[in-house]
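Residues determine shape. Next comes a sample protein:
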Amino acid sequence: MSLAPQHAIIHNNVTEALKKGFEKNWYILGEDLKTFETDYARFTNVRHCLGVGNGYDALSISLQACNVRAGDEVIVPAHTYVATWLAVSKCGAVIVPVEPDPSSMLINVERIEEKITAKTKVILPVHLYGHPCDMTKIQGIASRHSATIIEDNAQAHGAKWNERRTGSFGAINATSFYPTKNLGALGDGGAITTDSDEIADFVRQYRNYGFERKNYCEVEGINSRLDELQASVLSIKLKCLDQWNHERRELADQYIKRLYSVGDIQLPLPRKEALPVYHLFVIRSTKRDMLKAYLDSCQIDTMVHYPLPPHLQKPYASLNLQRGSLPLTEDIAHTCLSLPLWPGMTTSQIDRVCDCIVRFFSR
């Protein structure tokens, strides 16, 4: 991925904002953060946005805000970045994985209800790769079983399900502004979105040592705050986000047209209710490793997201989810490949990637 085309557009504005921020000598919980929080809440169409230190903290704090405790069960996608699982296990809750839908690679909503028990407290869908989950069905399931929804929106800034932004469906929702995200900071950063005044008040205190006023704790909080300099950069980038996401969709459409029916490639085809933002363009092929090696030889960078599923990571050996226990998740890990895609990428660059892939499957 190259950030250069995006950064070239905003270079002057960002450097000016950083200069002003440097000279203000106020770097934590100031006006730039308030401005960004207001703007991002408006963008997401929620009442509150609270900036925090990173996406993992956003998930952890969201679970705390929903009073998730040891023994509570949290339904999560089996196929996701491990941070989703880490936040759940860290608070002592029981991870209940659900296999993905084979076409979207998102949590299979048809399999959620069979995993619900009397101990289910939260359903935590992940809008993976910039594709929104079926929030209509997830909301219906949560309502029937009195479960709370927390969205992991780290890879889907600006995506929509049925014309509604992701990050606005849950009681509380977490996101990340890691530099490579659709809305990325110049370092780590994250945020929480919610319509609840009560939840917003809790997060506002919890992220800042539990203070309601300086040096007086109301709750046993932590230190996780989005700083002023990152907030100022994110405010500038936010103004460009819809355009950058539009470019991502156009590039994805080019890939889909060129690679449709090529070899055994499975493409991330959009659903009619969804407006994806293609944080990543992930294809699947049984020849993944050979294809990746061939593209490497063509000086085309690709990545595997994610080569080892969470249930096979060492911290989760105690769950006794042996290899083969989540077969579709494991198959995706063995077959998925992320092709280059970023705002500012040209049609000729897309064509070059596609030409090389077609040549590989024609050999």
